[in-house]
Structure formats: C-alpha cells, structure tokens
C-alpha cells in the first residue's frame, strides 16, 4: 500500500508541531501539523493511518482506496483561507504565502515569476499551458489581497507556446501584462525579476515590497486560487523528473503529486533509472542537492534529476568558486569529492554578500563583473581545476581569465547539462536584453 513521509519543516521558519498521533485515521486534507512561529499548516496528502510521529516527520500508511475527495478548509475571508491552506512559496524558497500577501502595495505590482529559472525544469511552463485560467484567477486574488493595481508575468521568451497561451488569455485583462526575459540564469531570482520588470535595483537586504511589488511563483498563485475557489488545502506539488531514465530523455511532468511521496516513486513512474548514473538531484542543477530515492517530496520540491556519472579528476588539486546563485560550499565540496578531486583553495564570487543567517546573496543577480582576482588566487594556490557554480554572466567572466592561466574549468552543473543535452555554462551567447513585442 505504501507510505508517505511528510516532513515537519517545509518552509522558512521553525518546524511545525504535529497535531496528530500514531493510529489516527486521516483523510486527504486532514490537518496534521501547525506552525510554531513563522510557518504554514501541513495536511495529510493521502487517506491512511498515521504510523509514526517524530520531531522531523509524520509517516502515514496509505489505504488501498484513495478517493479524490478531501477535507475542505473552513470558509472565511480570502486572506484567512490562504493562511489556513498552508500555502508557501512553491518555487523553492518556501516563504509562507499568507505573510507575503499581507503587504499593502498601495496600487503596486504582483510580479508572477514564470521564469522557471533552473535549466531542465518545466512544470511551471506546463501548468501555464494547461491551467492558465486557474493561474490568472490566482493572480487576481493576489492583486486584491495586496491592493495591487497591476500584475506582470515574467516569462522567458523561449517558451513560445506558454507565451502564446498567456497572450490569448490576457487579451481582455488590461491590468495584467507580460514581460519577456532572456534565457539567462538566474532571471528567476526575485530581485532580478523586479529589476527586469520594473527597472528597480534592490539591495541585498531589500525585499520586493521596497519597489511596491510582491514576487510570487506560478504554482503558488494556482494554489491560492484552489484555496479560495475550492477550499483546498495545500497538500500536493508539481514536479519535473528528468535525466537518465528508461522513460526517455524528455522531461516528465507530474502535476499534483501528494506531498510525502518518495522521489524514487516518481523516478519509477518515469520509467526507472537507465543503467549507471552519477547523482539523483532534488531541485535544480544550480541550487539543488544530492538525495536518495527515499527522499520525500515537499512543498518546495521542484525537480528530480538523474545524472550521468561524474568525471574522475584522479586526486588533482581543485579550487572552488562559490557563488550566491549556485550551490553552497558544502554542495561544491560534495561534487568535488564525487569527482575524486582535492580541494586546496576556496573563493567567493566578488558580488556574493554574506547575510546575517550565513546565506549568500548576489549584489546584482545575473549582471556580474570579472573574476580575475579569484583566478589569480587559484593559480597561486596550485589548482589544476576549478569548480564554479556561477550564473550565466559570471561564468562568462570566469572564462575570460581562468583558461588563460592554465586552469581547467568544471561548472557544477556540467554533468546535469550533459545529461539533458543543454549547452554547458561557459561563454555567454544570449543577449541580456529581449525585445518586448507584446
């Protein structure tokens, strides 16, 4: 019958507190955990029996029959229903949506992040193509809740079908428009979205509200519509599964996956792993992390990527260039270890600023200066290879100096890009500007 493992921390803030116990019968939509401070309600995603409750997760044994019905959230104001439904940012950040939508924008902007920034992922774009009406309803609710007078979809121009669908759906919507983005990473970072759509440069410590804007993900606005129109709790997630799969190389998009489902189950639904592989990554190539097949889907799970094997550096000395837009130093060390490299030097992108919580933020995401100083450090420290995790523009600047110094460059996404037949991140070949023909 199977089990789901529902984690108690799926959002910014402290883990939730369980409000159920072993042996309890639960339905889809039964409230099973509540916030302990900043957070969001967590609901059962299946019909079953609670098997165990720990400080980190609730395990539910599924019943053989899984009805489509669910326990509806209480009726209330739109803001109350969004809060009770337990919606968080579903693009990866996991900030509680009700808190974000409590801002008064004084006639400002809802910016819908449809960039689907991480290469290889396409579930946001697929949802626009298939469920555009629901998404637009959600956008209108977000505008109403925040007192916004305008909304803008920020979407990459390359997604031609989704752009056509949006244009058709928005023909009569004077307050909602499109802004076309270049295919550059990280156009989906929220300060980059504000910069591209509104022309406002935010500092690393500023939120989009400083520009009278709220940035919200495509799937998140659809969950807002579900909460208000259908009184539906947030207990499912849209996921892209891609990579070295028996089901083919094209991305497999699964909509409304029950939260707590193992990523191994999704891989099996995509045909299973095809032969020898390197890593299973949860998230995207840049900001995801290595995982096991028993890792559960959460509200912030976007992608599951099965990669080809990584190259062997045979113990060569390696420098790590840590970027705010890519993997953490821990993630890059993990990649280096899997490549049998030896870390002898670590540097940060010159625009990476360390915040109070220890996380890095880029001063100007997507627009980066040269990295000559770091390349000189790596050469001085005796590196033969450098592993970088930089954005499109920053990778381009690394390539302007590192190879001239005899440094061999491996981008942390290379094994993923080779798996999905995507150009490697080296030289920038895409214009930073896109003509707005809308």
UniProtKB/TrEMBL annotation:
<keyword id="KW-0479">Metal-binding</keyword>
<dbReference type="GO" id="GO:0046872">
    <property type="term" value="F:metal ion binding"/>
</dbReference>
<dbReference type="Pfam" id="PF13375">
    <property type="entry name" value="RnfC_N"/>
</dbReference>
<keyword id="KW-0677">Repeat</keyword>
<dbReference type="InterPro" id="IPR011538">
    <property type="entry name" value="Nuo51_FMN-bd"/>
</dbReference>
<keyword id="KW-0813">Transport</keyword>
<keyword id="KW-0004">4Fe-4S</keyword>
<dbReference type="GO" id="GO:0009055">
    <property type="term" value="F:electron transfer activity"/>
</dbReference>
<dbReference type="GO" id="GO:0016020">
    <property type="term" value="C:membrane"/>
</dbReference>
<dbReference type="InterPro" id="IPR037225">
    <property type="entry name" value="Nuo51_FMN-bd_sf"/>
</dbReference>
<keyword id="KW-0408">Iron</keyword>
<protein>
    <submittedName>
        <fullName>Proline reductase-associated electron transfer protein PrdC</fullName>
    </submittedName>
</protein>
<dbReference type="InterPro" id="IPR010208">
    <property type="entry name" value="Ion_transpt_RnfC/RsxC"/>
</dbReference>
<dbReference type="InterPro" id="IPR026902">
    <property type="entry name" value="RnfC_N"/>
</dbReference>
<feature type="domain" description="RnfC Barrel sandwich hybrid">
    <location>
        <begin position="3"/>
        <end position="62"/>
    </location>
</feature>
<keyword id="KW-0249">Electron transport</keyword>
<feature type="domain" description="NADH-ubiquinone oxidoreductase 51kDa subunit FMN-binding">
    <location>
        <begin position="83"/>
        <end position="225"/>
    </location>
</feature>
<dbReference type="InterPro" id="IPR031001">
    <property type="entry name" value="PR_assoc_PrdC"/>
</dbReference>
<dbReference type="GO" id="GO:0051539">
    <property type="term" value="F:4 iron, 4 sulfur cluster binding"/>
</dbReference>
<keyword id="KW-0411">Iron-sulfur</keyword>
<dbReference type="Pfam" id="PF01512">
    <property type="entry name" value="Complex1_51K"/>
</dbReference>
